[in-house]
Amino acid sequence: MSEASAPARKPAKGKYELDERLKAYQGVWVFVEHEQGEVHPVSWELLGEGRKLADTLGVELCGVVLGAPGLRTRRFCDEAFFHGADACYLVEDPVLANYRNEPFTKGLTELVNTYQPEILLLGATTQGRDLAGSVATTLQTGLTADCTELRIDPDNRSLAASRPTFGGSLLCTILTLNYRPQMATVRPRVMAMPDRDAARSGRIIEHALHLLETDIVTKVLDYIPDARQDKPQLPFADVIVAGGRGMKKPENFQLIRDLAAVLGGEVGASRPVVQAGWVELDRQVGQSGKTVRPKLYIAAGISGAVQHRVGMEGSDVIIAINTDPNAPIFDFATYGIVGNAMTILPALTEVFRQELALAKIAV
Amino acid sequence: MHIVVCIKQVPDSAQIRVHPVTNTIMRQGVPAIVNPYDLFSLEEALRLKDRFGGRVTVLTMGPPQAEAALRKCVSFGADEAILVTDRAFAGADTLATSYALAAAIRKIGENEAVDLVFCGKQTIDGDTAQVGPGIAKRLELQLLTYVSQVDDLDLAQRAIRVQRRAEGGVQVLQTTLPCLITMLEGTNEMRFASMDNMFRAARAEVRVWNREQAGIEDVARIGLKGSPTVVSKVFAPKAKEQKAEMIETESDQPRDIALTVVGKLFTQHAKLRGGLAKKLA
Ligand SMILES: Cc1cc2nc3c(=O)[nH]c(=O)nc-3n(C[C@H](O)[C@H](O)[C@H](O)COP(=O)(O)OP(=O)(O)OC[C@H]3O[C@@H](n4cnc5c(N)ncnc54)[C@H](O)[C@@H]3O)c2cc1C
Ligand SMILES: Cc1cc2nc3c(=O)[nH]c(=O)nc-3n(C[C@H](O)[C@H](O)[C@H](O)COP(=O)(O)OP(=O)(O)OC[C@H]3O[C@@H](n4cnc5c(N)ncnc54)[C@H](O)[C@@H]3O)c2cc1C
Question: Can you tell me the ipTM of this complex?
Fold first, then answer.
């Protein structure tokens, strides 16, 4: 209940025999989420991860596309094949023109009940979370939120979904044993983007949804797109320079901004710094902030708590600056510098400026 | 108009300390608070009550101590508070939690029909954002998640118009009551508790319901039994095969350190140098 720990129920060890009725559920599905004619990249990331799960299980990987006819839905199926799907379930219906909870819940639930997948993955986005919670409740099955790792448990062929536990530096693995499908959401950028192979193709399985617009209560009156440059785009930045509580005071964040500017990167931060109001909410990296995968992540005065780590450990190269040689961030950084961020950062800014000036001439 | 706001008591994460050796969280002495996300929903409910009249009932499922969180909500202006508590609820995952809360809301509705249910966007402990959609589905309420603004409410027509955050923009949605709303954080600011309400909260009678009183007959659908998800293990994140390469220099001069690390970076990750230069060129 409101005990601050995950429910402490352990499944019996060893082999696990699934109910006969549930053995009919086969295959790994990924919900292909789109908005305003664009597929959310998290869907491709999930196909990449889903491919591994399907291969381990020896089953098919399928995309699920719901949308209005003519809405580029077939293009989305092709893209799903390019990103690893063997087949795509396609529901085309005018009521699916914009995302709305009711028709999408009906459509996805009906597909699951008809074709019975064993695993269903969705992005942990405003659309995916809205839909996943409704679908899992309708299907009366388990749903694991915001997973950072998905594996197949060799003992029982079930999905072992891991996510950070509350407050501690630990992760927990959650299983959905006697229910199917096993559902999980994963946040954008947590999984790597798979290579796109335009030579791949697959089957499209069309399914008709018999819904009338007059039966759907909620109407979309308007859609107001965000102005592009309004928000920092941390999840897709190539370089991020992030500061934590070790930066001591808000004025010192200028050192972070200076280095980010020289590298053409974005400024990131740990949660305490965001909560103290030193930088905007959109710049928080971690479990309750953004997940990022830059080519270079520089962390200054950040200890490397697991909630921060899960948001940035997919970075190609991590440089950590910390006064404490035992800071946990050195356990997973690429390069570690034991030292005072207030003197190291300006030196780095200067050296990068010079180095890049030289490199630019060479370009 | 009758509004039910679901709130959860959670440990104050700002006060949580992690045991340096065992890596487990040290719970002793950590104060419990109302889940911060729930306050945006409570404030929105109170604003609707201010404009349109009616009553706000706050509801929580939790241990007996959760009563304190309900009193806090009464001090902000909630009219009534209900605590659903029973050992049988222990170990509930989100499916079992939404089952119990939906039953309690149905029960509340027997006295006075419920027009609107509010939930927080998510909690800071379980952090799943799944309970709101679950309750809506069970009660067949229209679901409006990530609402940044309630534009309009027409009680005569039973119509509501809201702005909902989507990934690349904002949806303007129109639906009918009853519905369930989860508010986005930062969309309003919780009012101060008035002196009157603080006194009222201190004296308020929190109604305490056990399983039967909450109208739950099927024990197989609550608590551990009613939870499809099972925690199989808790573990520390994998140590990387390789720890960080520590930068050692003869002098402790920042410039030497910077030259060394940038040198290593650009030789061991040569592509990065070219990529950066191209981007900046
Ligand atoms: C539910 C939940 C969700 C959370 N979500 C997030 C999240 O999304 N993102 C997140 O970041 N955190 C999150 N946290 C918080 C997380 O547990 C840590 O508390 C937080 O990441 C610590 O931030 P920090 O590293 O900046 O501060 P600290 O842990 O205080 O570390 C400061 C570091 O700075 C070093 N330092 C001090 N002085 C200097 C100096 N002069 N130069 C260099 N180094 C110096 C210190 O040695 C120390 O290692 C969450 C916590 C919970 C409970
Ligand atoms: C570390 C950890 C991981 C977990 N992972 C999962 C998981 O992946 N899947 C799963 O099904 N369960 C999971 N659980 C169990 C889950 O946290 C509990 O079921 C919990 O009772 C409700 O979920 P939540 O805290 O995530 O709420 P959320 O769904 O995030 O809460 C949304 C809103 O619902 C309302 N609400 C939630 N709980 C209550 C309540 N008790 N009383 C009144 N209103 C409430 C509040 O308005 C809240 O803001 C996990 C628990 C922990 C501690």
Answer: 0.91
